[in-house]
Amino acid sequence: MISAVIFDFDGVVVDSERLHWAAFNAVLKPHGKTISWAEYTDVFIGFDDRDTFKTAFPDLGKIELAKLIADKAAAFQDLLAEGGAAALPGAVELIKHLSGKIPIAICSGALREDILPIIGKLGLGDAFDTIVTAEDTPRSKPDPAPYRLTKERLGIRDGLVIEDTPAGIASAKGAGLKVLAVTNSYDRSYLTEVADAVIDSLEGLTLETLNELV
What we know:
The chain has helices at 17-28, 37-44, 49-56, 62-83, 91-98, 112-121, 145-154, 166-174, 207-213, and strands at 5-7, 104-107, 130-132, 160-163, 178-182, 197-199.
């Protein structure tokens, strides 16, 4: 039986990856660099802001890095205000169904300030037992650190992660967790060999069907 469910955020709960991509480019363009969508999905998706900028600009100093992260966060909030981030099919319903039945959490490479306004608007502000964000660990996915911290905060030894990227799956598996992958960001072929199970949508899922899947 599943003892807890941990949700990645961008690409699992909300359709926000293209907003993050656009926000990165808004900050990178004045520095003479942009990231194509293909490059973003191949290299950067699943990274937190810190590791994305470090990879894009390996010679950055700490002060420059802090400013880039702050500028990107502001750009993301502007984009969010313009169009919002829609919930992905079935996500809100599944979270509300699980909340109070078993421990649930978010483990994300996004900033806390990126996440809290969105879950508030979705009516999920009190749904999660803990939320782990980019500020909480020195290393981002695919390193296991974020999911290890989430396990520690929930007080669990095992559980199920719902992820959408190979980097996120690697992080969760490295922390000793089972993974249900959803094909919101990557084709099934990228996920099947690394996840315990793969689905195309969270629609209609319950605690019972999650137990049957993994």
